[in-house]
Amino acid sequence: MDKIKIFDTTLRDGEQAAGASLNAQEKLEIARQLEKLGVDIIEAGFPITSPGDFEAVKLIAQEVRTPVICGLARAIPADIDRAWEALKEAAHPRIHVFISSSEIHMVHQIKKSREEVMELARTMVARAKSYTDDIEFSPMDASRSDPEFLYKLLEAVIDAGATTLNIPDTVGYAIPSEFGELIKGIRQNVPNINKAVISVHCHDDLGMGTANSLAAVKNGARQVECTLNGIGERAGNAALEEVVMALRTRSDFFNFETGINTQEIYRSSRLVSALTGFAIQPNKAVVGENAFRHQSGIHQDGVIKMAKTFEIMDPKEVGIQASSLVLGKLSGRHAFKQHLTELGFDLNEEDFDRAFKAFKDLADKKKDVTDRDIEALVAEELRTTVELYHLDRIQVTSGDRGIPTAAVRLTTPNGGAAEDAALGSGPVDAVYKAINRIVNVPNKLTEFSVKSVTAGIDALGEVLIRIESDGVTYTGRGSDTDIIVASAKAYMNALNRLLRVKNAS
Ligand SMILES: CC(=O)SCCNC(=O)CCNC(=O)[C@H](O)C(C)(C)COP(=O)(O)OP(=O)(O)OC[C@H]1O[C@@H](n2cnc3c(N)ncnc32)[C@H](O)[C@@H]1OP(=O)(O)O
Ligand SMILES: CC(C)C(=O)C(=O)O
User: Fold this and answer.
1) Which fold has domain 384-504?
2) Cβ(138) to ligand 2 under 6 A?
3) According to the UniProt record, where is the region Regulatory domain (predicted)?
């Protein structure tokens, strides 16, 4: 399989993302990780822009020895000289010279004629070539340039010594089929094109950075410029992780490989996020938190039966340990059962049905059902297997003005139901008194404690109580997102134990 070179520009175009700014040490840390990731070229910065960026490029050139280290320069002598000054100690240096080629840029931005641009491009590439052999040239805004002018410009810089011709979609304007045609046109119309590698640099203004890069690969590009997490000027650049994983996952379609050690992708992505302070959106392809998480029952069932039903990539390939099934209100019985097994529960069918129902009820109330929630609810279901009285409904009124009042409805041992109400010193006291009016078995509350078993405002509260009757202590536990309901469940749990003992004796 032929190889596509991966040119990472996280440290140059990536750093142009508004709000991202990295110091030299942070850039070096990312460059070292990019080396582990196996990128072919690191564009370390734009040395003329500031003393700090110059130092960062120089440091990376000195320290990171495997990949090519590249520095950007306008078609201006001072830029090229400064880039070389920063790069000269690199094991494999590259100078990247650029100048605009579209009418709108030439007329309104750099205010130069086609002839002037042609001349500057040729002479500045030659100047860079006097420093090192590896020269990249970019006609900025290529996708909005006149193709005939572009062909001549590219031929001129090949003659001057450019070894890589990078075709940028600078403003993210191109459409994949159109961009693919542009690359094909360059291959067919630039006479000495085989002396250089065709590269592409696509921005994501219309969300097509990756698609345009891949269309270019299909049409002859052999280097792709990209950034981790797709960061970059404005809406960013084609994302490295997307380009690399598309080429790998669809090698049946592209028939190319890259030198990327894909298992380092996730780690690299997190490092860039941490150092730039840019959070990764959960649904970001390949590296987003949800990229390998399945939430709906039908998908979860498929993944349990065979991962490939809903996973086109193995998460391990990108350095994520495993995909996960997120339990929530959309989950089905298969996923719930697997999760229980992983947590060490082996429930019979009846207990499982009850636990599943309780889980669905909880998931309706709580967005994230955690392992602690599940442990609490299974324990709750298991310990109430034999219930004489069951709490069916509860209604409580409390506050700092009125008298706390509770109404309860219990199902009774004979299969019927009983309702009653009571006032109390507080809502829990009112509930317990209302239950006592139905169950009517003398006892004394000796201990009551409540704790949160899961985190967050919608956490499960667990109530533990102890009651005493005829010198014997009975424990009861109950959990619920409402602590008054949890208190009522705990009391019912203790009363049922007490009644079972009394009935048995
Ligand atoms: C598509 C891209 O991502 S290109 C890279 C963008 N990156 C950056 O701009 C990095 C940060 N930039 C900077 O620090 C500064 O803009 C510098 C140091 C590069 C230049 O700063 P200044 O000299 O103050 O110029 P300023 O940025 O205001 O204007 C750019 C000048 O460069 C010229 N210019 C722009 N691109 C090129 C080019 N490729 N070749 C030659 N000249 C160019 C412009 O015409 C303008 O020249 P003018 O002053 O004669 O009008
Ligand atoms: C310097 C060039 C390659 C660039 O960043 C662009 O055109 O977007």
Assistant:
1) Double Stranded RNA Binding Domain (3.30.160)
2) yes
3) 390-505
Q: Does ligand 1 have an atom closer than 6 angstroms to the CB of 169?
A: no
Give residue 6 CA to ligand 1 midpoint distance, Å. Answer: 26
State whether the beta carbon of 137 lies less than 6 angstroms from ligand 1: no
**Domain 293-382 matches domain 384-504 at the CATH topology level:** no
Q: What is the DSSP code (8-state) at residue 239?
A: B
CA 442 – CA 242 distance, rounded (Å):
69
- C-alpha–C-alpha distance, residues 86 and 78, integer Å: 12
Nearest CA to ligand 2 atom 2: 140
Helix (H) or strand (E) holding 30: helix 24-37
Give the Å distance between the CA of 135 and the centre of ligand 1: 20
Per-residue pLDDT, 505 = 52
17 C-beta closer than 6 A to ligand 1: no
Assess whether the C-beta atom of 76 lies below 6 angstroms from ligand 1: yes
Amino acid at 42: I
Domain boundaries, the chain: 2-276, 293-382, 384-504
Asked whether residue 384 carries a pLDDT value surpassing 60, the answer given is no
Taking alpha carbons only, the member of 214, 164, 166, 226 closest to residue 194 is 164
**Residue 170 alpha carbon to ligand 2 centre in Å:** 6
- Residue range 209-228, pLDDT digits in tens: 999 999 999 999 999 999 99
Q: What is the DSSP code (8-state) at residue 312? A: S
- What number does the ligand 2 atom closest to the CA of 168 have? 7
Hey, what are 284's tokens?
A: 């970001």
Residue found by looking up tokens 């030198």 in the block: 259
Report the topology of domain 293-382: Recoverin; domain 1 (1.10.238)
Prediction ipTM score: 0.98
- Amino acid 258: pLDDT: 98
Q: Are 166 and 176 in contact (CB under 8 A)?
A: no
Which residue owns the Cα nearest ligand 1 atom 13?
Answer: 49
* 339 is an annotated ligand-binding site residue: no
Q: Encode pLDDT of 449-471 as tens digits.
A: 998 877 777 778 889 898 988 87
Q: Which CATH architecture is the domain 2-276 placed in? A: Alpha-Beta Barrel (3.20)
The answer to whether 143 and 100 have CB atoms below 8 angstroms apart is no
What is the rounded distance in angstroms from the CA atom of residue 429 to the CA atom of residue 296? Answer: 41
CA angle centred on 205, ends 203 and 206, rounded to 5°: 115
pTM of the model: 0.80
Distance 251 CA to ligand 2 centre (A): 28
Q: State which of 74, 108, 117 you would mutate to test the pocket of ligand 1, scoring each by most atoms of that ligand within 8 A of its C-beta.
A: 74
